[in-house]
Specification:
This protein is an alpha+beta fold and about 450 residues long. About 35% of the residues lie in helices and about 20% in strands. Strand 16 and strand 17 form a beta hairpin.
Length: about 450
Protein backbone atom coordinates (compact mmCIF):
# COMPACT_ATOMS: atom_id res chain seq x y z
CA UNK A 1 0.00 0.00 0.00
CA UNK A 2 1.26 3.49 -0.87
CA UNK A 3 1.98 5.98 1.91
CA UNK A 4 0.21 9.33 2.01
CA UNK A 5 3.40 10.98 0.78
CA UNK A 6 3.56 8.64 -2.21
CA UNK A 7 -0.12 9.28 -3.01
CA UNK A 8 0.43 13.03 -3.01
CA UNK A 9 3.61 12.88 -5.11
CA UNK A 10 2.13 10.49 -7.64
CA UNK A 11 -0.90 12.72 -8.13
CA UNK A 12 0.83 16.07 -8.27
CA UNK A 13 0.64 17.73 -4.86
CA UNK A 14 3.67 19.63 -3.66
CA UNK A 15 3.46 19.22 0.12
CA UNK A 16 6.25 19.28 2.67
CA UNK A 17 6.32 15.89 4.41
CA UNK A 18 7.45 17.02 7.87
CA UNK A 19 7.00 13.64 9.56
CA UNK A 20 4.88 10.55 9.14
CA UNK A 21 1.37 11.62 8.07
CA UNK A 22 2.00 15.31 8.79
CA UNK A 23 2.28 17.70 5.83
CA UNK A 24 3.01 21.40 5.39
CA UNK A 25 0.28 22.96 3.26
CA UNK A 26 2.14 26.28 2.86
CA UNK A 27 4.33 24.75 0.13
CA UNK A 28 1.29 24.32 -2.15
CA UNK A 29 -0.93 26.86 -3.91
CA UNK A 30 -4.23 27.85 -2.33
CA UNK A 31 -6.26 26.36 -5.20
CA UNK A 32 -4.46 23.02 -5.06
CA UNK A 33 -4.89 22.85 -1.27
CA UNK A 34 -8.60 23.46 -1.71
CA UNK A 35 -8.75 20.64 -4.29
CA UNK A 36 -6.93 18.37 -1.84
CA UNK A 37 -9.36 19.12 0.99
CA UNK A 38 -12.35 18.48 -1.27
CA UNK A 39 -10.83 15.18 -2.41
CA UNK A 40 -10.10 14.01 1.15
CA UNK A 41 -13.68 14.75 2.15
CA UNK A 42 -15.08 12.86 -0.85
CA UNK A 43 -12.84 9.93 0.12
CA UNK A 44 -14.22 10.11 3.69
CA UNK A 45 -10.75 10.61 5.17
CA UNK A 46 -10.74 11.89 8.75
CA UNK A 47 -8.12 14.67 8.66
CA UNK A 48 -7.30 17.78 10.67
CA UNK A 49 -5.68 21.08 9.67
CA UNK A 50 -3.97 23.34 12.21
CA UNK A 51 -1.37 26.04 11.74
CA UNK A 52 -0.93 25.20 8.06
CA UNK A 53 -0.29 21.54 8.88
CA UNK A 54 -2.34 18.65 7.52
CA UNK A 55 -2.57 15.63 9.83
CA UNK A 56 -3.85 12.38 8.33
CA UNK A 57 -4.72 8.91 9.67
CA UNK A 58 -1.76 6.56 10.07
CA UNK A 59 -3.20 4.09 7.58
CA UNK A 60 -3.68 5.67 4.11
CA UNK A 61 -6.46 4.77 1.76
CA UNK A 62 -5.66 2.40 -1.14
CA UNK A 63 -4.56 4.19 -4.30
CA UNK A 64 -7.48 2.65 -6.21
CA UNK A 65 -9.91 4.41 -3.87
CA UNK A 66 -7.95 7.67 -4.14
CA UNK A 67 -8.09 7.51 -7.94
CA UNK A 68 -11.86 6.94 -7.85
CA UNK A 69 -12.18 10.36 -6.21
CA UNK A 70 -9.60 12.17 -8.36
CA UNK A 71 -10.53 10.75 -11.77
CA UNK A 72 -13.83 12.56 -12.14
CA UNK A 73 -15.61 12.88 -15.48
CA UNK A 74 -14.12 15.38 -17.93
CA UNK A 75 -11.18 16.19 -15.69
CA UNK A 76 -8.45 17.78 -17.80
CA UNK A 77 -10.33 17.26 -21.06
CA UNK A 78 -10.64 20.93 -21.85
CA UNK A 79 -7.17 20.91 -23.38
CA UNK A 80 -5.67 22.87 -20.51
CA UNK A 81 -2.62 24.94 -21.40
CA UNK A 82 -0.70 27.34 -19.24
CA UNK A 83 2.00 29.89 -19.78
CA UNK A 84 5.55 28.87 -18.82
CA UNK A 85 7.37 30.74 -16.08
CA UNK A 86 4.15 32.04 -14.58
CA UNK A 87 2.17 30.19 -11.92
CA UNK A 88 1.91 26.57 -10.89
CA UNK A 89 -0.80 24.64 -12.76
CA UNK A 90 -4.14 23.85 -11.18
CA UNK A 91 -4.22 20.13 -10.47
CA UNK A 92 -7.95 19.75 -11.00
CA UNK A 93 -7.44 20.99 -14.57
CA UNK A 94 -4.70 18.46 -15.37
CA UNK A 95 -5.38 14.88 -16.45
CA UNK A 96 -5.48 12.43 -13.55
CA UNK A 97 -2.55 10.22 -14.49
CA UNK A 98 -0.11 12.86 -15.70
CA UNK A 99 -0.51 15.62 -13.11
CA UNK A 100 2.33 14.23 -10.97
CA UNK A 101 4.76 14.17 -13.89
CA UNK A 102 3.88 17.75 -14.84
CA UNK A 103 4.56 19.01 -11.32
CA UNK A 104 7.87 17.15 -11.11
CA UNK A 105 9.02 18.49 -14.48
CA UNK A 106 8.28 22.03 -13.32
CA UNK A 107 10.13 21.39 -10.04
CA UNK A 108 13.17 20.30 -12.04
CA UNK A 109 13.04 23.39 -14.25
CA UNK A 110 11.29 22.00 -17.34
CA UNK A 111 8.44 24.34 -18.14
CA UNK A 112 5.43 22.52 -19.55
CA UNK A 113 2.74 24.19 -21.63
CA UNK A 114 0.34 21.28 -22.15
CA UNK A 115 -0.27 17.65 -21.24
CA UNK A 116 -2.57 14.69 -21.78
CA UNK A 117 -2.60 11.26 -20.10
CA UNK A 118 -4.19 9.68 -23.17
CA UNK A 119 -7.45 8.81 -21.37
CA UNK A 120 -6.74 5.13 -21.98
CA UNK A 121 -7.14 5.58 -25.76
CA UNK A 122 -4.01 7.38 -26.92
CA UNK A 123 -0.38 7.68 -25.93
CA UNK A 124 0.20 10.14 -23.10
CA UNK A 125 2.23 13.22 -23.95
CA UNK A 126 3.61 16.43 -22.49
CA UNK A 127 4.41 19.63 -24.35
CA UNK A 128 7.56 21.33 -23.07
CA UNK A 129 8.70 24.82 -23.94
CA UNK A 130 12.06 25.02 -25.74
CA UNK A 131 12.80 28.30 -24.00
CA UNK A 132 15.43 27.75 -21.31
CA UNK A 133 15.07 23.96 -21.37
CA UNK A 134 17.83 21.45 -22.13
CA UNK A 135 15.93 18.53 -23.60
CA UNK A 136 19.04 16.34 -23.58
CA UNK A 137 19.11 16.50 -19.78
CA UNK A 138 15.49 15.43 -19.65
CA UNK A 139 16.24 12.55 -22.02
CA UNK A 140 19.15 11.35 -19.88
CA UNK A 141 16.95 11.36 -16.79
CA UNK A 142 14.20 9.35 -18.50
CA UNK A 143 16.73 6.81 -19.77
CA UNK A 144 18.05 6.44 -16.22
CA UNK A 145 14.50 5.48 -15.19
CA UNK A 146 14.69 2.55 -17.61
CA UNK A 147 12.90 3.93 -20.66
CA UNK A 148 14.34 2.23 -23.74
CA UNK A 149 14.08 5.24 -26.01
CA UNK A 150 12.75 8.79 -25.92
CA UNK A 151 9.87 9.57 -28.28
CA UNK A 152 9.54 13.26 -29.12
CA UNK A 153 9.14 15.73 -31.94
CA UNK A 154 9.83 19.42 -32.26
CA UNK A 155 7.03 21.76 -33.16
CA UNK A 156 7.80 25.45 -33.33
CA UNK A 157 8.71 26.66 -29.87
CA UNK A 158 7.94 23.37 -28.12
CA UNK A 159 8.98 19.76 -27.70
CA UNK A 160 6.18 17.17 -27.80
CA UNK A 161 7.29 14.29 -25.54
CA UNK A 162 5.35 11.03 -25.92
CA UNK A 163 5.15 8.66 -22.95
CA UNK A 164 4.04 5.20 -24.18
CA UNK A 165 3.24 4.00 -20.68
CA UNK A 166 0.28 2.41 -18.95
CA UNK A 167 -1.71 4.57 -16.53
CA UNK A 168 -0.08 3.09 -13.43
CA UNK A 169 3.35 3.49 -15.05
CA UNK A 170 2.72 7.22 -15.45
CA UNK A 171 2.11 7.44 -11.71
CA UNK A 172 5.24 5.37 -11.06
CA UNK A 173 7.27 7.74 -13.23
CA UNK A 174 6.09 10.75 -11.22
CA UNK A 175 7.17 9.04 -8.00
CA UNK A 176 10.60 8.20 -9.46
CA UNK A 177 11.07 11.78 -10.62
CA UNK A 178 10.32 13.07 -7.11
CA UNK A 179 13.61 11.55 -5.91
CA UNK A 180 15.76 13.41 -8.45
CA UNK A 181 17.57 16.54 -7.37
CA UNK A 182 17.93 19.32 -9.92
CA UNK A 183 21.72 19.28 -9.57
CA UNK A 184 21.82 15.66 -10.79
CA UNK A 185 20.67 16.68 -14.26
CA UNK A 186 24.05 18.24 -15.05
CA UNK A 187 25.85 14.94 -14.35
CA UNK A 188 24.14 12.68 -16.85
CA UNK A 189 22.51 9.29 -17.16
CA UNK A 190 25.00 7.11 -15.25
CA UNK A 191 25.14 9.44 -12.25
CA UNK A 192 21.35 9.67 -12.04
CA UNK A 193 21.00 5.89 -12.33
CA UNK A 194 23.50 5.37 -9.51
CA UNK A 195 21.78 7.87 -7.23
CA UNK A 196 18.42 6.19 -7.85
CA UNK A 197 20.03 2.89 -6.84
CA UNK A 198 21.18 4.39 -3.54
CA UNK A 199 17.70 5.75 -2.92
CA UNK A 200 16.14 2.31 -3.33
CA UNK A 201 18.88 0.78 -1.21
CA UNK A 202 17.94 3.14 1.61
CA UNK A 203 14.27 2.19 1.21
CA UNK A 204 15.18 -1.49 1.57
CA UNK A 205 17.23 -0.78 4.68
CA UNK A 206 14.16 0.80 6.29
CA UNK A 207 11.94 -2.29 6.01
CA UNK A 208 11.57 -4.88 8.72
CA UNK A 209 12.07 -8.56 8.01
CA UNK A 210 13.71 -10.66 10.70
CA UNK A 211 13.93 -14.38 9.88
CA UNK A 212 10.43 -15.85 9.79
CA UNK A 213 8.76 -12.44 9.50
CA UNK A 214 9.71 -11.28 6.01
CA UNK A 215 6.24 -10.18 4.83
CA UNK A 216 6.94 -6.43 4.61
CA UNK A 217 10.23 -6.68 2.71
CA UNK A 218 8.84 -9.43 0.48
CA UNK A 219 5.78 -7.36 -0.49
CA UNK A 220 8.02 -4.41 -1.36
CA UNK A 221 10.34 -6.54 -3.49
CA UNK A 222 7.39 -8.16 -5.25
CA UNK A 223 5.92 -4.76 -6.12
CA UNK A 224 9.25 -3.51 -7.46
CA UNK A 225 10.11 -6.69 -9.37
CA UNK A 226 6.72 -7.47 -10.93
CA UNK A 227 6.90 -4.98 -13.86
CA UNK A 228 10.21 -6.49 -14.97
CA UNK A 229 9.43 -10.23 -15.04
CA UNK A 230 7.11 -12.62 -16.87
CA UNK A 231 6.20 -14.72 -13.84
CA UNK A 232 6.28 -14.09 -10.10
CA UNK A 233 4.97 -16.03 -7.12
CA UNK A 234 5.46 -16.71 -3.44
CA UNK A 235 6.00 -20.41 -2.76
CA UNK A 236 4.41 -22.24 0.16
CA UNK A 237 7.54 -21.64 2.25
CA UNK A 238 7.57 -17.86 1.74
CA UNK A 239 10.33 -17.57 -0.88
CA UNK A 240 9.74 -15.08 -3.69
CA UNK A 241 10.33 -16.72 -7.09
CA UNK A 242 10.29 -14.99 -10.47
CA UNK A 243 11.37 -15.64 -14.04
CA UNK A 244 11.98 -13.60 -17.17
CA UNK A 245 12.83 -14.58 -20.76
CA UNK A 246 14.98 -12.02 -22.57
CA UNK A 247 14.90 -11.66 -26.36
CA UNK A 248 14.67 -15.11 -28.00
CA UNK A 249 15.52 -16.95 -24.80
CA UNK A 250 18.19 -18.90 -26.68
CA UNK A 251 21.02 -18.65 -24.21
CA UNK A 252 21.87 -19.55 -20.64
CA UNK A 253 19.40 -19.78 -17.79
CA UNK A 254 20.98 -17.91 -14.90
CA UNK A 255 19.79 -17.91 -11.29
CA UNK A 256 20.14 -14.64 -9.35
CA UNK A 257 19.72 -14.96 -5.59
CA UNK A 258 19.69 -12.86 -2.43
CA UNK A 259 17.94 -13.39 0.89
CA UNK A 260 15.18 -11.25 2.38
CA UNK A 261 15.69 -11.75 6.10
CA UNK A 262 17.94 -9.94 8.54
CA UNK A 263 19.53 -11.55 11.59
CA UNK A 264 17.78 -9.33 14.14
CA UNK A 265 14.99 -6.77 13.92
CA UNK A 266 15.81 -3.20 12.92
CA UNK A 267 15.50 -0.58 15.65
CA UNK A 268 12.36 1.48 15.07
CA UNK A 269 13.85 4.87 15.94
CA UNK A 270 17.22 4.38 14.26
CA UNK A 271 18.62 6.56 11.49
CA UNK A 272 21.08 5.71 8.73
CA UNK A 273 24.29 7.64 9.20
CA UNK A 274 26.08 8.51 5.93
CA UNK A 275 29.72 9.57 5.99
CA UNK A 276 32.03 9.53 2.96
CA UNK A 277 30.14 6.77 1.20
CA UNK A 278 29.97 4.53 4.28
CA UNK A 279 26.55 3.89 5.82
CA UNK A 280 25.98 2.78 9.40
CA UNK A 281 23.04 2.56 11.77
CA UNK A 282 22.67 4.98 14.66
CA UNK A 283 21.34 2.09 16.71
CA UNK A 284 21.37 -1.68 16.22
CA UNK A 285 22.24 -3.49 13.02
CA UNK A 286 22.19 -1.75 9.64
CA UNK A 287 20.64 -4.73 7.85
CA UNK A 288 22.81 -4.55 4.73
CA UNK A 289 23.20 -8.33 5.00
CA UNK A 290 21.44 -8.93 2.69
CA UNK A 291 19.39 -5.88 1.77
CA UNK A 292 22.43 -4.80 -0.28
CA UNK A 293 22.09 -7.98 -2.33
CA UNK A 294 18.35 -7.43 -2.76
CA UNK A 295 19.02 -3.91 -4.07
CA UNK A 296 21.55 -5.25 -6.58
CA UNK A 297 19.09 -7.81 -7.96
CA UNK A 298 16.27 -5.27 -8.29
CA UNK A 299 18.63 -2.99 -10.16
CA UNK A 300 19.65 -5.82 -12.48
CA UNK A 301 16.00 -6.67 -13.18
CA UNK A 302 15.62 -3.13 -14.53
CA UNK A 303 18.91 -3.05 -16.42
CA UNK A 304 18.49 -6.43 -18.11
CA UNK A 305 15.61 -5.09 -20.18
CA UNK A 306 18.09 -2.80 -21.96
CA UNK A 307 21.15 -5.09 -22.06
CA UNK A 308 22.10 -7.23 -25.05
CA UNK A 309 21.29 -10.52 -23.36
CA UNK A 310 19.36 -13.49 -24.72
CA UNK A 311 18.39 -16.19 -22.26
CA UNK A 312 16.40 -16.63 -19.08
CA UNK A 313 16.85 -15.39 -15.55
CA UNK A 314 15.35 -17.02 -12.47
CA UNK A 315 15.15 -14.74 -9.42
CA UNK A 316 15.01 -16.30 -5.96
CA UNK A 317 14.64 -14.13 -2.85
CA UNK A 318 14.83 -16.57 0.03
CA UNK A 319 13.50 -16.43 3.58
CA UNK A 320 15.13 -17.68 6.79
CA UNK A 321 18.64 -17.70 5.34
CA UNK A 322 20.06 -16.44 8.61
CA UNK A 323 18.72 -19.45 10.54
CA UNK A 324 20.22 -22.24 8.46
CA UNK A 325 19.51 -21.56 4.78
CA UNK A 326 15.96 -22.78 5.43
CA UNK A 327 14.24 -21.02 2.53
CA UNK A 328 16.78 -22.14 -0.07
CA UNK A 329 16.57 -25.74 1.11
CA UNK A 330 12.80 -25.66 0.60
CA UNK A 331 12.72 -24.27 -2.95
CA UNK A 332 10.95 -26.83 -5.13
CA UNK A 333 13.47 -28.58 -7.35
CA UNK A 334 11.34 -28.11 -10.46
CA UNK A 335 11.94 -24.34 -10.32
CA UNK A 336 15.68 -25.01 -10.63
CA UNK A 337 15.34 -27.32 -13.63
CA UNK A 338 17.33 -26.12 -16.63
CA UNK A 339 19.42 -23.64 -14.63
CA UNK A 340 22.93 -23.38 -16.07
CA UNK A 341 24.59 -21.07 -13.56
CA UNK A 342 23.88 -19.29 -10.28
CA UNK A 343 25.06 -15.94 -8.96
CA UNK A 344 24.41 -15.13 -5.31
CA UNK A 345 24.96 -11.60 -3.95
CA UNK A 346 25.46 -12.04 -0.23
CA UNK A 347 29.17 -11.74 0.59
CA UNK A 348 30.76 -9.22 2.91
CA UNK A 349 33.51 -6.85 1.79
CA UNK A 350 34.40 -5.91 -1.75
CA UNK A 351 35.87 -7.86 -4.64
CA UNK A 352 35.27 -11.39 -3.37
CA UNK A 353 34.11 -14.11 -5.74
CA UNK A 354 33.38 -16.93 -3.30
CA UNK A 355 33.81 -20.33 -4.93
CA UNK A 356 33.74 -22.64 -1.90
CA UNK A 357 32.71 -22.95 1.74
CA UNK A 358 35.91 -22.71 3.79
CA UNK A 359 37.84 -24.19 0.89
CA UNK A 360 36.31 -27.58 1.70
CA UNK A 361 32.90 -27.60 0.02
CA UNK A 362 33.20 -26.39 -3.60
CA UNK A 363 30.46 -24.25 -5.10
CA UNK A 364 31.78 -24.49 -8.66
CA UNK A 365 34.66 -25.55 -10.88
CA UNK A 366 37.65 -23.22 -10.79
CA UNK A 367 37.03 -22.01 -14.35
CA UNK A 368 33.56 -20.71 -13.44
CA UNK A 369 34.89 -18.42 -10.72
CA UNK A 370 37.80 -17.38 -12.94
CA UNK A 371 35.30 -16.30 -15.60
CA UNK A 372 34.12 -13.51 -13.27
CA UNK A 373 37.72 -12.49 -12.60
CA UNK A 374 38.33 -12.27 -16.35
CA UNK A 375 35.18 -10.25 -17.07
CA UNK A 376 35.97 -7.81 -14.26
CA UNK A 377 39.56 -7.33 -15.47
CA UNK A 378 38.51 -6.82 -19.10
CA UNK A 379 36.08 -4.08 -18.06
CA UNK A 380 38.34 -2.18 -15.69
CA UNK A 381 36.61 -3.37 -12.52
CA UNK A 382 39.63 -3.90 -10.31
CA UNK A 383 40.00 -6.00 -7.19
CA UNK A 384 37.74 -8.97 -7.98
CA UNK A 385 39.34 -12.29 -7.02
CA UNK A 386 38.23 -15.84 -6.28
CA UNK A 387 38.35 -16.85 -2.64
CA UNK A 388 36.91 -19.25 -0.09
CA UNK A 389 34.03 -18.06 2.08
CA UNK A 390 31.40 -19.15 4.55
CA UNK A 391 28.07 -20.91 4.16
CA UNK A 392 25.28 -19.20 2.20
CA UNK A 393 22.44 -20.06 -0.17
CA UNK A 394 25.22 -20.65 -2.71
CA UNK A 395 25.84 -23.97 -1.02
CA UNK A 396 22.30 -25.16 -1.76
CA UNK A 397 22.43 -24.31 -5.48
CA UNK A 398 25.78 -26.08 -5.75
CA UNK A 399 24.25 -29.18 -4.17
CA UNK A 400 21.80 -29.19 -7.09
CA UNK A 401 24.78 -29.40 -9.45
CA UNK A 402 24.60 -25.74 -10.52
CA UNK A 403 27.84 -23.80 -11.04
CA UNK A 404 27.56 -21.11 -8.34
CA UNK A 405 29.45 -18.14 -6.89
CA UNK A 406 28.72 -15.62 -4.14
CA UNK A 407 29.73 -12.00 -4.82
CA UNK A 408 30.64 -9.24 -2.37
CA UNK A 409 28.13 -6.44 -1.90
CA UNK A 410 30.03 -4.08 0.36
CA UNK A 411 28.84 -4.75 3.92
CA UNK A 412 31.14 -5.49 6.86
CA UNK A 413 30.67 -6.56 10.51
CA UNK A 414 27.21 -7.93 9.74
CA UNK A 415 24.88 -8.91 12.60
CA UNK A 416 26.48 -6.35 14.92
CA UNK A 417 25.84 -2.75 15.95
CA UNK A 418 29.05 -1.88 14.07
CA UNK A 419 27.81 -3.04 10.67
CA UNK A 420 28.86 -0.82 7.77
CA UNK A 421 28.02 -0.61 4.09
CA UNK A 422 30.34 0.77 1.42
CA UNK A 423 27.73 1.91 -1.09
CA UNK A 424 30.24 2.36 -3.94
CA UNK A 425 31.37 -1.26 -3.48
CA UNK A 426 27.73 -2.33 -3.53
CA UNK A 427 27.14 -0.52 -6.82
CA UNK A 428 30.35 -2.04 -8.20
CA UNK A 429 28.61 -5.41 -7.93
CA UNK A 430 25.85 -4.09 -10.19
CA UNK A 431 28.50 -3.13 -12.74
CA UNK A 432 30.10 -6.58 -12.57
CA UNK A 433 26.78 -8.31 -13.14
CA UNK A 434 26.00 -5.97 -16.02
CA UNK A 435 29.20 -6.81 -17.92
CA UNK A 436 28.82 -10.49 -17.02
CA UNK A 437 25.41 -10.65 -18.70
CA UNK A 438 26.87 -8.97 -21.76
CA UNK A 439 29.25 -11.95 -21.92
CA UNK A 440 26.47 -14.46 -21.35
CA UNK A 441 27.11 -16.36 -24.58
CA UNK A 442 30.67 -17.08 -23.43
CA UNK A 443 29.41 -18.04 -19.99
CA UNK A 444 26.95 -20.43 -21.61
CA UNK A 445 29.69 -22.15 -23.59
CA UNK A 446 31.81 -22.45 -20.45
CA UNK A 447 29.14 -24.06 -18.26
CA UNK A 448 28.22 -26.51 -21.03
CA UNK A 449 31.86 -27.50 -21.33
CA UNK A 450 32.15 -27.94 -17.57
CA UNK A 451 28.98 -30.03 -17.51
CA UNK A 452 30.30 -32.32 -20.24
CA UNK A 453 33.57 -32.73 -18.35
CA UNK A 454 31.70 -33.68 -15.18
CA UNK A 455 29.64 -36.22 -17.11
CA UNK A 456 32.77 -37.80 -18.57
CA UNK A 457 34.45 -38.01 -15.16
CA UNK A 458 31.37 -39.52 -13.53
Amino acid sequence: MKTWNQLFLRHGWNLGNEKENVFNLRTETEGNVRFLMESLELAHVDYTVSGGKLVLPIVPIPEEAWIEVLDFEYRGRGGFWFQPNTEEPKLNELDTYISGIVRQLIRLGFQTVGSCDGHGRRVAHIVISKEGNDFEKLSQMLLAFGMKRIHYRENGKNYHLSLPLKKIELLDLAEKMSVVEKSWLDKGYEFIEEQLFYHQLEELLSLSGVSGNEEMIRDFVKEQLSPHVDFITIDRHGNLLAEKTYKTGHGPTILLNAHLDVASELEIDRTIVKENGIWTSSKGILGADDRAGVAVLLQMAKKLENISFSGKVKYIFTVKEEVGLVGARQVDEYFLWGTNAAIVVDRRGSGDIVTSCAGVIPFCDDEYGQFFEMVALENGLSGWNCTAGSSSDTRIWAEHGIQSVNLSVGYQHEHTDYETLNIAACYQTVKLLEVTFKKAAELHRLVRRLRMRREIVS
